[in-house]
Each structure stands twice: as structure tokens, then as C-alpha cells.
Amino acid sequence: MSRVSAFLFRRRGGKGWHWTDVVTFGWLFFGVIVMFGPALWLIMSSFKSPAQLAEFPPTALPYESRTVVVEGYDKPLPLFIVTDEAGTRTLAEVRRVGTTAQMVDPANSGEIQRVNIANRVPDRQVGFAWDNYVQPFLAFDFMLYLKNSVFVTVVATLITLLTNSMAAFALSKYEFRGRNAVMLTVLATLMIPLSVILVPLYSIISAVGLFNSLWGVILPTVATPTGIFLLRQYMLTIPDELLEAARMDHASEWQIYWRIVLPLTAPALAVLGIFSVVWRWNDFLWPLIVLSRKEVYTLQVGLNTYAGELNVQWHFILAMTVVTMIPVVIVFLFLQRFITTGIAGSGLK
Amino acid sequence: MPASMPMWPRPWLPPAETEGIVAQLKQMAGAVVTAPLGWAARAIDPPLRLWQRLTGTGGMAAFFLLPNMAIFGVFVLLPLVINFAYSMTTGGALFLSDREYVGAAQYAQLLDCDDYTDPSTCAQDQFWTALANTALFVVLQVSLLIVTATITALILNRELRARSFWRAVFFFPVLLSPVVVGLIWRWILQRDGLLNAMIIPMGLDPVNWLIERNWAFAAAIGVTIWAHLGFYALILLAGLQAIPKDLYEAAEMDGTKPGRVFWRITLPLLMPNLLVVIVLALIRAVQVFDEAFVLTGGGPGTATLFLTQYIYEVGFASLLKNPGLAAAASILMGAVLVVLTLIQLAISRRNEKKGKLK
Amino acid sequence: MGQISLKGIKKSFGAVDVLKGIDLEVGDGELVVFVGPSGCGKSTLLRMIAGLDQPTAGTIAINGTDVTPRSAADRGLAMVFQSYALYPHMSVRQNMAFGLQNTRMARAEIDARIADAARLLEIEPLLERRPGQLSGGQRQRVAIGRAIVRRPTAFLLDEPLSNLDAELRVSMRAELSALHARLGATMVHVTHDQVEAMTMADRIVVLRAGRIEQVDTPLNLYNRPANLFVAGFIGAPGMNMFGATMARGVARLEGGPEIDLGGLPLPPSGAVTLGIRPQHLLLSEGVEADLTAKVDLIEALGSETVVHATLNEGAKLLAVLPGQPALARGDVVGFDVDPAMVHAFGADGVRLAGF
Ligand SMILES: Nc1ncnc2c1ncn2[C@@H]1O[C@H](COP(=O)(O)OP(=O)(O)OP(=O)(O)O)[C@@H](O)[C@H]1O
Ligand SMILES: [Mg+2]
Question: Which ligand 1 atom is nearest residue C207's CA?
């Protein structure tokens, strides 16, 4: 522990604490709590049973009641710690009538004791309500939404990478009439957000019969000018001599693209691919508009619908939110460095 | 003979820091993905060779551009054009041919107000409420966001151990989906939520964070800042790291006070990045939707109704859909965004020029 | 067979005429070197032979067949680029195999050819490495190997040695010559290093500003440069040039001294330029020196000594003297000129007839 703190608290030159050091570490620890805390809280809450979720104030960790199988009773009975004039002891509840509970001593199952419920607390241990996770997969359409989301994410990303890299290749390695016009159009639309063209886009999607289709979610997003721009900038740094060498080597233009340029653009493709995955996985507004039938909902839309229902079933929603978060967290854990350098280098988001 | 400098050949290689990506990508992609792709790529080569022979490189350029440009044209350019037609027609019909031309009437309706300071006197009171909310949101959210992002970047730029860990801490929420962000905070801010549980022991009264107008609005601001802070801090951090160290050393030699160093060296040199970040943040704030929508659904009442949600409601969600009105509203919003984008382009152009001069 | 003939090749980039009419025959098995100052159009010409650029006018024929409209891949040539242009993401073996695979050659044949080339170039241990893991000289060999496996009608090399350090360049130069002898293939080699040109070439093509100045064997170029440009370009250090006026068979250098060049077929009168290589100036033993000059600077290289001197009339003079003559700065020395070693050019810069 002291090692860890020595590591974390090492300051410039090892001199005494300057006020800026105090501010720095104050801010950093505040940051850890505020940034990680909510997600952590979400995860811990997602393992709580509905009864526990309704508790206020909430406990930090998920608990479950201890139960015991008592002779003469079919079901396992919940255990309580009872404290009254007779002393402190652990009893199992048989049934509850008003403010009185009928309880038995697990060791001595014959005798029923009456206990005022104010005199007892549930005997609990840390335990995880895995049911929150299992149920949505079995009973809800969660599996379907998950499948839809994966489909949208994977297909959209593949198409994005292919079409954008092809266009970027043409725009960076060929001289042709109209190249500047194309480039200018791409640049001009770089900042046109979806929210500005929602209505006409919706009508086009309907006109081509893609309403309520996952393709209707995918297609408008794949021709991102950002992707073309990023890939083109990278391809410009690939020397033309490499392409000429390939031409001397009998390579067709398609082969040059596929076997030479594409592998060499891998770093930029990786950045775009990661971002595309995150973007498409997280997309909300556009799927919300295009998808109106449950069978085609993506996770984000499905989740929002659950949360909008009249009796919000928080225990399921929290668990599903955690599952929705998992791919992004994995991307974050493994590719954090690439993402951050990618952003710093290109201002991509 | 002029002595030529011995120059080792530098074959072009991908930048070193990205080599890891390639390796990692290969592992992840594996043969499963690449094999069929490779097969497909080989299969289309012969017809493409023929096409190349027939049309030359010009034809190949067209081939490479076509898929993207087709999608781009249909789903980006065409909607841009149609949007104007939409905004000048009325009715619930989706297809332009079924719609009635009304000229600028919808714009007039949107802008029709007796008293511009009071949204309730407007024909489209919701639009004005959304507009007022959005304006207030933009001002408060962007200024708070910029200040906190700058502080975070400055702190992350200090000589910290485990800097990449700290950076990751602040960056983490950026990748979360807006729906997840909204739900997380809804869970925390609800009446029986964590926040109230934490303030009650401090002797404060529990607050209905998402039900009280002002608190809900503040929550929308706070949550969006929480979600985007890391992104802007990262860009600013890159800017800070580009400031040459020797400037600070020179200042230290001169005995300059830290505060003065910040105002006279750090801030001016960070200004280009700061401007870009401000404009980017403005552009996004104007379009605020997802997180706020999941968090508050626009409520209580219309307290957190923002422009994009207004467009969504009028165009798609409400019973009386009015796509024309939604289109008109989106064009007005687009106009604001175009102005902001032009500002941003001008800034980055100027930065580039400055960079070249150096 | 690898015979290349260029007829009336012209090339313009927009309004700029880079090549202004090139006619050249390259014989089968010949090693022809293009030299010339930077920007004279050497690479452009080579790229046109390769088929990477199309000439604005003129025709290119290989083995008698007009290949001008053909694409680079269909000309049967191989090129070694100045930057080597090795595919960074492929191993050495894949680099060499790529071109063969594209022609749908059998796997066994590809392997055999790569093995042959690797043995020839001694790069067998490197076959599985990436270009990024090779030294400059090794990359160079791989680039050549990639050309060799194709068994091309001719090799085109664009400054293949210019990226190497001086020492490596000398040894690679020898290797390339040996390779040429071994393969017996036609090679067109571009360089702006005249030593490289002199040592390697069967014939040298001297280019200037898009025109061929002279095509000949290295020694002929040295001994009988066709014009002032070639005379100054070939040989190091550069030739001493003196403006002179002829009068009654005697050359009077600008400003004074007269050199008796009796017996040379000089015009009886008019302005000429006389060229004398620094190596052909001899220290005068007697009193009657042809040229008298004051020593400015002495560069003693051991085996020879380079003397920078100024003639009385102010013209600069450079002499390369064998051994280590006892001279000092400020000395006034006399030089003798062997009339047989004098080059004479007319007012138009062209070598005078009879020389
Ligand atoms: N694509 C092009 N567009 C315009 N001008 C060009 C182009 N390629 C070459 N040039 C011009 O043509 C002239 C000849 O270029 P080239 O590359 O053939 O010179 P070089 O003799 O190979 O010179 P170096 O020894 O420096 O390699 C140069 O003036 C160059 O600027
Ligand atoms: Mg060149």
C-alpha cells in the first residue's frame, strides 16, 4: 500500500508539497471517484435483487438473504437475527402476519415462536443476483437486440472501411478530372450532422423501403466524410514509387489497392475501425427513428424502451446496461492508447 | 567531386508508434476474417483487369469512388437538397409529390412571436422553449466544459507517474453510449438514488434531482460534461505537450511566477487548440440530444427540451407529425452549425499557416 | 534479347518541356548509363522506357516492337527504384514473389527463381525478414533481386546506389558490374555520379536539359568530349578552360600568355576555348614555362597533390601533380602543356574538327 501511494504521489523533484500538488491530487482523486464511481455503482447495483434495489439508503454491495432448509417445510426459509428480551438468536421465518412473524429455530423445528418484526433484521451475506442477467437473455428480446446491434456494428464497420478506403485511394493516388470537386464536397459535408437532415433522410429511407430495416440504420452512416478524410491523409504519405513498383510487377490497380495500399494503411484503418465500432454500437437517435418494430431494435433503442416503460424494472435494466457497456469497455481497455493517440492526431470523435 | 552526404536509405515505413496496432489487429482479425475476404478480392480481380484495360486509370478511379459516392450522394447530399423542399411544403405526407407548397410559411410560423422574450406568446411555443433552453445550455455547458477540460489537461500535463492511467480515468466515459450514460445517471439521480443517500448523512434534504426544473437542467449540463470532458481534455493535452519545454525553462530562469507563466506562455500557445475545442464543443452542444433525452426525456414539462428533441418530436414522435416544420427547424439549426463550422475551418486554416511559418 | 530504341522522345509536363527529342539505341546486353546534372530529365526518360509515364511524342521500341502504347507491366522490363520501393509489409521472399505470382507462375518455379537470385546476391539468410529489418546495402540487393527473378528483357536502374554511403557505394558498384557480366542482360542505369558512370558503363549517355549531349564509351568521352559541357562534366576535378584567341597558329590566352600549339589543327584565327585537364599540367623544369601561376592553395592527398593557382592574368587554374612536390603557398611556378592533351572548342562550344 505504501508502495502504491509512494508511486502515485511522487511529485516533481520530491520537494515538499506545493499548493499545486494538492490541487493536482485533489482533482485526480475527485476524477477517479466521479468518472469511475458511477459505472462502478451501476455494476454493483446490477447484481442486487429487486427488493434490495428498493432499499433506501442503499448498501454498497449486493446482499442476499441466507436461507435454511428446516425439517417439515418444503421450501428453504429465510433466516433472521432476532434480538429481544430472550436474547440474540438466529431464527427462520415461516410466515408473517401483520407485524408479527412466526419463526422457528432451525435446530428445533417443532416449536413456533412469535416475534415482532421490529425486533429482527434479515441475516444476509454478500451475494449476486445473477438472475438479473439470466432473465433478460431468456425472457426478454434482449438476445435479439444484441444480435441486431452486433450486426449493425460489424456490417457498418466493414462497409465503412471498404468504401472509405477505396474512395480515399482514388482521391489520393489518381489524377482525374473532378477530383478537387469531389474532395471539396467531402470536406464541405464533414460537419453536417445527422440531426440536420433527419427528416429528408427518413423519407429517402422509406422511399427505398429500408424503414424498419437494419440496412436503413447502416447505410446512411457508412459514407462518413471523416473516414475518407482520415484515410486519404494517411495514404498521401505512402510513396507513389511503391505503387509504380507494383505496376512494374504486373499488379492490376485493384491488386495495388488490395495488396499494397490497404495493408500499409492498416494503422489508419485500425483507428477508423475502432471509432466506427464505437460509433455504431452507441448510435441512438437514428435507429430510434428508423426502427419502430421490436424485432429490429438495437440494444440502445431497446434499452431506452425498457427504461421508458411504466413500471421500470431497474434490476433488469441495470444488468442490460452493463452488458451494453461491455464491448466498449473491452475496446477501451485494450485499445485505449490507440484511441487517445488517434484523437489527439486527428480530432476524431 | 562534391562530397555527397552519406544518406541511409529510408524506405517508407508506417510510423513507428502505430506498428503495434498492425500486430494487434492481425491477431484479432485472424485467418477467419481475412481468408474469405482475400478470396473475394482475388475473384473480382479478373473482371477488374478487363475494366482497367477498357477504361484506363480514369475508369479505375471511377470504380474506386463509385460505392462511396453513391451512398454519400443518396444518403447525405440528396437529403441536404430535399430538406429545403421539405421545409417549404406542409402536411403529414412523406413524399414530396404529395405535399403542398407553402413557401416560407413554416419559417414564418416558427418565427412568429408576439414577444420574443416570452416563448409562451409564440405560435410555436415549444420551438422557442427549445431554442431558449438550448441557448442557455450551450452557454453554460460549453463554458463549464472548457474550464474543467482545461484544468484537467493542465493537471495531466504535469510530471505525473502513471499519467496514462489518469488520462484513461477521464477518458473512460467518452466511449460509453449516450443511452448508457443517461441510464447510469438516472439511476444515481433518482429520488432513492445514490446521490440522495450520500447527501442525507451530511444533513442536507434529499432533492428530486430529475423532477425539479432547475436541478434537471443542471443535471443535463453536468452529465453531458461528464461524458465529453475526457475528449476535449485529450485534445488540449496534445496541445500542451506540443509547447516546447525550453520556454518553461527559460521562464524559470527568469524567475517568472507560475501564474504569470500560465497567462503569458501556456494560454497564448494553447489558444489555437483551445479555439478548436471551443468550436467543436459549441457544435455538439447545439445538437444536444441523446444523453439528455434518456436522462430526463425533455422534462419535467419542457424544462430540458432541446432543439434536436423538438425536431424529433415534431417530425417523428408526436401524434400530429409535421415533417415540414421539423425540416424548417433543422435548417435553422443547420444555419447556426454552418456558421460555427466556417469559424472552425477559418481557425484551423490560420493555425496551419502559422505552423508552416515556424 | 534486350534491345531498346528510342525515337524522337519528347515529354512535357504542362508548359514545361522536360525532354526535347531523344534518339538512342541500346544494344542487347549493353550497360548504358545516363548521366547529367540534377533535373536534366534522366528519371523521366527512364520512367518512359519503363512505361510508367507516356511520352508526349516519339516512339519506344523493344526488340523492334513498338511498345509505346503498352502499359508498364506488359513491357517485360524490371526497374530498381532510387528508394528501392520495397513493399514494407512483405518479407523479402514475398517481395520477390509478388511480381511472379501476378503472372500466375507455378509455385515451384517461383521458389526456384527466388532461390537462384538469393544465392547470386547472397541474401539467403534474409529471405524471411521485412525490409525494415535490413541495412541499406541489403535492401539494395533485395531490390535488385526483385528485378532479377522476373528475368526481364532489360533492367532499368534509377540511381540505385545514391542512397548508400561512400564505401558501400564503391563495393556495390563493382558487384553491379559483375552481375551485369554474369547475367549478360541489357541494363539502363541512371546516375549523376560520373565516377559510377565511368567505371560501369559500356556506353555513357550525357544528358543536359532534356537533350543528349554525347553518347560514347567512357574513355572516348574522357579523351574526346564532344563539347564544352561534356568536357567539364566528365573527369574530376573539372577541366581547366581558357578562352583564347588564335593568331597565326599561336593561341593567346585572354590577357597575355601565348602558348605555341604548333602542329595542332587549329583554325588560323578566331576565338576558341582551350581545355586542359588538371592531370595534364606538368611542373615546368626549365625557365621557359608555358604558363606561370602563383600558388593559392595546396591540397596534398599523398599520392597526388592538387594545386590551386592563379595565372598572372587572374584566371584560375587547377593542377593535379603526381607525388608530393615541394611547393608552398605564394610560390610562383611554371607549368608545361603537352599539346597532344589539349582540347579545343569553337565559339559555339563544339569540339573543333580534327581534334
Ligand atoms: N510530374 C511532374 N510534373 C512536373 N514536372 C516534373 C514532373 N516530374 C519531373 N518533372 C520535372 O522534370 C524535370 C526532370 O526531372 P527528372 O526527375 O527526370 O530529373 P533527374 O534528371 O532524374 O534529376 P535527379 O538527378 O535530381 O534525379 C525536373 O525539372 C522536374 O522538376
Ligand atoms: Mg532522378
Answer: 21
- Regarding whether A88 and A199 lie in a shared domain, the answer is no
- The CATH 1.10.3720.10 portion of chain B extends over 121-357
CA-proximal residue: ligand 1, atom 12 (nearest): C18
pLDDT tens-digit map of A149-207 = 999 999 999 999 999 999 999 999 998 888 888 888 887 776 677 777 888 888 888 88
- Measure B115 CA to ligand 2 centroid, in angstroms: 73
Distance CA A243, CA A249 (A): 10
- Cα A104 from Cα A94, distance rounded (Å): 7
| Element housing C299 (H / E) | strand C291-300
- Give a yes or no: residue A53 inside a domain: no
On whether any CB of chain B is under 8 Å from the CB of A8, the answer is yes
Q: C52 and C199 share a domain? A: yes
Q: Can you tell me the distance from the alpha carbon of A83 to that of A33, in angstroms, rounded to the nearest whole number?
A: 38
CATH number for position A267 = 1.10.3720.10
Q: State the residue range of the domain holding C166.
A: 4-233
- Per-residue pLDDT tens for B122-160? 777 788 888 889 989 999 999 999 999 999 998 888 877
The rounded distance, in Å, linking the Cα atoms of B286 and B113 is 22
Superfamily of domain B121-357: MetI-like (1.10.3720.10)
Nearest ligand to residue C37 Cα? 1
Considering only CB atoms, which chain C residues are within 8 Å of A241?
81-83, 85
Q: What whole-number distance in Å separates Cα of residue B197 and Cα of residue B352?
A: 51
CATH number of the CATH domain containing C322: 2.40.50.140
Nearest to C78 by CA among C139, C134, C155, C141: C155
Domain stop point among A71, A100, A126:
A126
User: Complex ipTM, two decimals?
Assistant: 0.80
Give residues (CB < 6 A) around ligand 1.
Answer: C 13, 16, 18, 36, 38-44, 192
Q: What one-letter code names the amino acid at A228?
A: I
Same domain, A145 and A285: yes
C213 and C110 co-located in one domain? yes
Instruction: Identify the contact set of chain C against chain B, taking CB-CB distances under 8 A.
Output: 83-86, 88-89, 131-132, 136, 139-140, 162-166, 193-195, 236-237
CA distance C118 to C116: 5
Q: Domain of A212?
A: 133-346
* Domain C-terminal end among C176, C210, C233: C233
Task: State the average pLDDT over residues B109-113.
Answer: 75
The pTM for the full model equals 0.81
